[in-house]
Amino acid sequence: MSELFMILGFALAAYAIVANDSIQTLGTFLASNSKRPWWSLWVWISGIMVVTVTWGWIANGGDPAFGRLSAAGKNIVHPGAYGGIFTWLFVIPPLCLVILTRMGIPVSTSLLVLTAFKGLIAAQQGKSPKGAVDLFNSMMQKSLVGYALAFVLGLIIFAAVLYIMERKVLKEKDGREKDGNYPHNELHPVWSVFQWLSTGFLWSMWLVQDLANIFVYLPRELSLLGLILSLGGMVLLQGYIFREKGGKIQKVVTSKTNTLDVRSATFIDLLYGLVLLFFKVDYIPKLFAMMDLAVPWPEKMPMSTTWVFLGLLAGREVGIALRLNVRSKGKVSNLIFRDAGKAFFGSAIAVVLALFLPTFIEPVAAERLEAEAAAAAAVSVESVESVESVESFEVLPEPPMGD
């Protein structure tokens, strides 16, 4: 049953995490290519995923999560490393994520899955879930810094430069709507090439950050067979997501200005990918260490890419509103706070699961330890009895030899 729950947890995490986070990495790609066959998008994105995961597996000694599960201050071990087991409780976090995704709520998958998993591991080891709360605090701190950085970048870039392109897109859209012809992205093919490349870059950067949320359920040193099977399952789940065109959660993207246009989608993906690359290299902890200051979070610490994406969209909306007056300040504020409120709701669920689920797993771990202790005691008794029987065996003296 332990292996069954492990596989089920991995499958749910692979679906829910990619489906929920598709708004960040693939949302604009899906929205602006809605007229293309879904399978062509699937082949491109799945190919990049296979290459990235395989690269991580080779470069990190069999760990496709790029070492983010063993970062200092986190170290989320696999239950098999200390003799633990997977129970139905480990399936609850990704299951909650599936439900929230189907409801169209953008949730930080890193905060929800990793924090709850850390709490369950601590409970099985007889430790306090405080480590899970500390992990949440570090990830949340890094995520909020990411939100602020992405917000400022989106605000400056779109208010200072890219508003010119957005204004052109809006004029084209208004002209076509007046003629009864809605926009259908008939642009120079080079824009499609740029968008597919920028989406590929963003997708690879996102995988480096968030693969830990999926592979937390599998051994830290994955065999070649395990890699092939896990990739096969992820590719199939990806195909389902593309066929469904992202689901209800796509509204987080489509409700924003011009996100259906290839040109706007290209720059959103490019800027988002650059922010994730900045955090992948961990410039902030390295800068603090060079200045002999307290490092805000350890290197390779996971973060919520959801918060980064929402920050970029929020800064972009404010920048466009300031220069083009497309939406009123009230509507822009409502969009920003609504998305942030949903993300905070998901973060609250992560803390609740991290503190609540471990209270149920203690008896499970105790029963297992008692069973193992009883089995060890039985083996010890049998060994003692065997030794005593050998010692009680008397060797008869040899008869005296004749002359």
Q: How would you summarize what this structure contains?
A:
It is built from 14 helices and no strands. With 403 residues, it is mainly α.
Quick tags:
single chain; globular; mainly alpha; about 400 residues
What class do helices, strands and sheet pairing give? mainly alpha
Name the helix and strand elements from N-terminus to C-terminus, one letter apiece.
Answer: HHHHHHHHHHHHHH
| Cα distance spanning the termini | 73 Å
For the sheet with most strands, the description reads: none
Q: Radius of gyration over alpha carbons? A: 27 Å
Tally the beta strands.
0
Query: In percent, how much strand structure appears in the residues?
Result: under 5%
Low-confidence stretches: none
What does the model show?
The chain is mostly helical. The chain has one domain (2-359). The protein is 71% helix and 0% strand. The protein contains 14 helices and no strands. It has helices spanning 2-25, 27-32, 38-59, 92-102, 109-124, 130-178, 189-215, 224-243, 251-254, 262-280, 283-290, 305-324, 329-356, 358-391. Helix 1 runs antiparallel to helix 7 (189-215) and helix 6 (130-178) packs antiparallel against helix 13. The chain is globular. The model has no long low-confidence stretch (mean pLDDT 77).
Sequence-ordered SSE layout with sheet pairings:
Layout: H1 2-25, H2 27-32, H3 38-59, H4 92-102, H5 109-124, H6 130-178, H7 189-215, H8 224-243, H9 251-254, H10 262-280, H11 283-290, H12 305-324, H13 329-356, H14 358-391
Helix pairs in contact: 1-4, 1-7, 1-8, 3-7, 3-8, 5-6, 5-13, 5-14, 6-10, 6-12, 6-13, 7-10, 10-12, 12-13
